[in-house]
Specification:
heterodimer, A: mainly alpha, 8 helices, 2 strands, B: alpha/beta, 2 domains, 10 strands
Amino acid sequence: MMYSNNVSIWKNIVSQVKWKLGAHNSAVLTIVIIQLIIAAIANHGSMRGSGLNNMQVTEYIYSLDSVMMVSVVAVAATCIALSSKRTQSDNLAIPTTRLTASISTILFIWIITFITTVTAIVSQNLVQVVKILVLDLDIIGRTLVPSVTVFFVFYFILLCAGAVGYFIGVMFSLSKIVTILSGVLFIVYLAKVEQNIFIWLLDESYGMFMLKILLIAIVFYALALFVNNRQEVRRG
Amino acid sequence: MLKDVSCQIEEHKIIGLIGRNGAGKSTFLNILAGHIKPTAGKVTIYQDNPFNSITTATNTMFIEEGMTFPNGNNIARILEIAKCFYPNWQQELAEKLLQYVGISLNGLYDKLSKGQRSTFNLVYGLSARCAITLLDEPMNGMDEAVRADMYRAILKEYIAYPRTIIISSHHLKEIEHLIEEILLINNGQVALHKELEEVQQFAVRLIGQPEQLEPYRNHALFERNEGPLAEIIVEKKYFNGHSSIQSEAVSASDVCKYVTANRMGGIDDVFK
């Protein structure tokens, strides 16, 4: 067999992304199921009122907050698992390097966060439709119309959660002690500046919020890529 | 693990990478596969530095015991994936070999026994038909019959589609019929790198009176005294054909054993 120098790095990355989508489809499915369950059982805000002629009105206010919180945790946990030693070992069953493995994993994370954003919003709407059909309710407002802004805010938040999770996973595979200690210090520090961070993130428009979140995500992805690329591609 | 290793491997050969436990065989293969970066020195595969090189990775198949595939993937799916990554992938060959050894395409990789996993890994490695195939103890866990079949499969594949194959093993006897060269690693260094025939001619076993063998003791790779006769293994170049000393050929496997021995004498000496 002849040694071939005609190897395309991008073709390899695209093939790896496709492979990862197939290999980790159960992880995506798990997130979607969790979102559906949370959307169904979450305690949505409601208001009751009654009038003179026995009229009773109950208002349900649907919010994506619960689904978002669960999605953030699920995506971060999935991304931590993606940088585990076992997953890194699995990567070696196909031609790969640290760089192509990391880039394909990051692209994979972007795709799964997109899918889970769509499913989060759809699950919310699905629950609303079921309640409308079963409980014979009326819709007031635009609850069933997906908002582009909400979609992108949700997507960028998940993207950021994925970046942080992936970075933690990469650091954890490098040194467990350093990661745990850094994590504890970060949480202690975060508790002190939490208010300031939220003000910094939320004091302007949604556009600025998304930009800031995206910037944080890019920094964490870049750090993960940098750290990962310094390591050897060794089976665990 | 490895130190001052220097060797050149010609393409389209089957090389036996021999050494004792912990000698550095796996480290050597990991460096060739580009998985480990050498702390010093230079490794070149077809003008490429293999470390983190996608060209090397695409042209190299590294099969080892710790190989894993994503959880929940069945064999058919793994073969399907391989098609996308290895340009010379032989689906029909893989399916035929797996059918022959009784591994179902619908079975899960995780549910295979240790021997079946090794067999599957080897089939995967052969079917990829990469220019460089690195096999680190590929027969671990396989039963005798499958082992023999798999050695034959390697040979048939190599004859039909020559490529560079490096097989590491503790058991040279098992792969002697297969290999053309021996690369013997001991304590992280290349102790011997020769054609198989040269290794088979490398040493000689001398049996005679202890005083007759005295001149050879300085060069002894191994020596033993039992009863009135003594036995010494030396490199053939040191033996001048003394007629009263009985000389015997030493197998390649024994040559490797004696060259890598840390001490004179054998296990019997421990019990003296």
